Amino acid sequence: MYVTTRPEPIMARAATENFPVASRLLPARLRTHLLAIYGFARLADELGDEAPGDRLAALDWLSEELDRAFIGTATHPLLRALAPTIAACGLSREPFERLIEANRVDQRIRSYDTWPALLAYCHLSADPVGELVLSVFGAGSPERIAHSNAVCTALQLTEHWQDIREDLARARVYVPLEDLARGGCTIDDLAAEQVNERLRRVLRLEAARTAALFREGDALAASLRGWSRLAVAGYVGGGRAALEALALADYEVLALTPRPTPRRTLGAIVRVLVRAAGG
């Protein structure tokens, strides 16, 4: 069996996300399911980003372990925790496999030339999580999944704009190269101590595109009721607050790590809920 990192550090990252992974306001049963999905997604990322040795082999092991989770014979603690969620919620294997594939892509592709190419990557790396969350609530439909995909992509993009320096340390660049070139920027601008005005203009463009994707969260939240609306409002509001924090810092993401205050995050979540109730 492939030896992986312990689950505790992986799950501890939930507290550092831009959104409440599984709000304590939710019933314990739902929180357990959401945390199980989060644990799988983070394990896939851990293997793709940090695993020593052959990371593709590690991801192949995870795919095999996923098969075992679907029949109740998984060995890794996070996959054993996922198995009851798969069974109780009737989850499909395909979204999980897309999350694994996103990390395979990371092993061979280090940058994206265009915005559409980056969105296609997010369809693998982010959108499956939203599909799985909707399945947990029994709320999946083509229209909701389309809105969810926009929100999940926006959450992923916000994280990319926050983590430019961290990504560059892994030899990855998620700001589209075409946009950098049009803005008169090079990779050296991403490695600088501070954001210069050229890069700031590029990041404003990316943030505006990301905000447009987040707007689909209002329609998604309005289409839901009860606990599912609360959970989605947390994701949408938390992501919006994180994006707003970048703007408040004037997109200084190299010298700083802009984060929203808990008060701003709560306010953004409440605004999503209010708009959903009015819709």
Fold and architecture overview:
By secondary structure, the chain is mainly α. It has helices at 7-12, 28-49, 55-70, 77-89, 93-108, 115-125, 127-136, 142-162, 164-169, 177-182, 187-190, 197-214, 216-222, 226-248, 262-278. It is globular, with a radius of gyration of 18 Å. The relative contact order is 0.11. The mean pLDDT is 94.
Describe the structure concisely:
By secondary structure, this protein is an all-alpha fold. The protein has 15 helices and no strands.
How is the topology of this model organized?
Layout: H1 7-12, H2 28-49, H3 55-70, H4 77-89, H5 93-108, H6 115-125, H7 127-136, H8 142-162, H9 164-169, H10 177-182, H11 187-190, H12 197-214, H13 216-222, H14 226-248, H15 262-278
Helix pairs in contact: 2-3, 2-4, 2-5, 2-7, 3-4, 3-5, 5-6, 5-7, 6-8, 7-8, 8-12, 8-13, 8-14, 12-14, 13-14, 13-15, 14-15
Alpha-carbon distance between the two ends: 51 Å
User: In DSSP terms, counting alpha (H) and pi (I) runs of 4 or more, how many helices?
Assistant: 15
Structural class: mainly alpha
What is the makeup of the main sheet? Answer: none
- Strand portion: under 5%
Q: Catalogue the unreliable spans.
A: none
Give helix and strand order, one letter per element, not per position.
HHHHHHHHHHHHHHH
The tally of beta strands, per DSSP, is: 0
Q: Give the integer mean of the pLDDT values.
A: 94
Helix proportion: over 70%
Q: How would you sum up the global shape?
A: globular
Give me the Rg, rounded.
18 Å
